[in-house]
């Protein structure tokens, strides 16, 4: 362990194969903007979704370059929308197949975990304690250690089996957070809708951010004419 890693307590961010990679990018950017350290786990299925939604091929050997390109891209697909730069120094990447990785153990120091987006397969795996890859194992560890687990499920409609899995996660102490954008914050761009969901995930994790305009009890506050 290097001097810079002593006392490091990251947020683990797991990205599963559901559609919604812009949600993950927004959460990651906001965590880094808040000065938080991040441990990133990208599932094998999510690489296909990322390639389909952004054109980015996420590679273990070039993860920093690929992550930088991903986080710089806006929700509308435009490259170089956001500046990332040195913030990537706060990220540690773990391969999804590495079950000996740090986050696989309860003794590994972490603040909690955010799964964004969470597919129904991922939800089932975590609810049943399958630990079939590092993402699921890290989530199980987060629950058993009593740390905050936020599951941003992205699927519609939801069948009965998935609903049962989500109830099981809720009963185990996780925060079940459907990726449901709201419109009262005055969204005028797709990025605003993405940032709302990312912001609610960070609210659930207890991480400060400025991703969306909060409700203040005034009707019409979200109107673009105001």
Map the helices and strands.
Layout: E1 11-15, H1 21-33, E2 38-42, H2 44-54, H3 63-72, E3 91-95, E4 112-118, H4 120-127, H5 134-144, E5 148-153, H6 160-172, E6 175-176, H7 190-205
Parallel strand pairs: 1-2, 1-4, 2-3, 4-5, 5-6
Helix pairs in contact: 1-7, 4-5, 4-6
Please, could you describe this protein's structure?
The chain has helices at 21-33, 44-54, 63-72, 120-127, 134-144, 160-172, 190-205, and strands spanning 11-15, 38-42, 91-95, 112-118, 148-153, 175-176. It is α/β, with parallel strands linked by helices and 226 residues long. It has a six-stranded parallel beta sheet, with helices on both faces. Strand 5 (148-153), helix 6 (160-172) and strand 6 (175-176) form a beta-alpha-beta unit. It is globular and about 50 Å long.
Name the features.
226 residues, alpha/beta, 6-stranded parallel β-sheet
Multimeric organization: single chain
How many H/I helical runs?
Answer: 7
The ordered string of helix (H) and strand (E) elements is EHEHHEEHHEHEH
Give me the secondary-structure category. alpha/beta
How far apart the termini lie comes to 52 Å
Largest sheet: 6 strands, parallel
Strand content: 5-15%
**Overall mean pLDDT:** 95
How large is the radius of gyration?
17 Å
Residues in helix, %: 25-40%
The strand order across the widest sheet is 3-2-1-4-5-6
**What is the total tally of β strands?**
6
Uncertain spans:
none
Q: Specify the overall morphology.
A: globular
């Amino acid at each position: 362990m290097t001097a810079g890693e002593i006392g490091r307590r990251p947020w683990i961010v797991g990205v599963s194969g559901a559609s919604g990679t812009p949600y993950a990018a927004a959460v990651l950017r906001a965590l880094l903007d808040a000065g938080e350290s991040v441990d990133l786990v990208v599932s094998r299925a999510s690489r296909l979704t990322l390639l389909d939604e952004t054109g980015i091929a996420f590679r273990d050997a070039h993860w920093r370059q690929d992550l930088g390109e991903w986080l710089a891209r806006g929700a509308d697909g435009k490259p170089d929308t956001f500046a990332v730069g040195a913030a990537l120094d706060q990220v540690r990447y773990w391969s999804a197949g590495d079950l000996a990785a740090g986050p696989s153990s309860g003794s590994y120091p972490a603040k909690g975990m955010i799964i964004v987006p969470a597919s129904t397969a991922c939800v089932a795996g975590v609810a049943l304690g399958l630990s079939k890859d590092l993402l699921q194992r890290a989530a199980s560890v987060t629950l058993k250690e009593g740390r905050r687990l936020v599951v941003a499920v992205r699927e519609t409609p939801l069948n009965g089996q998935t609903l049962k899995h989500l109830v099981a996660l809720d009963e185990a102490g996780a925060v079940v957070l459907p990726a449901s954008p709201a419109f009262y914050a005055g969204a005028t761009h797709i990025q605003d809708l993405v940032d709302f969901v990312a912001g609610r995930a960070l609210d659930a994790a207890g991480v400060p951010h400025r991703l969306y305009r909060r409700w203040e009890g005034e009707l019409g506050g979200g109107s673009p004419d105001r």
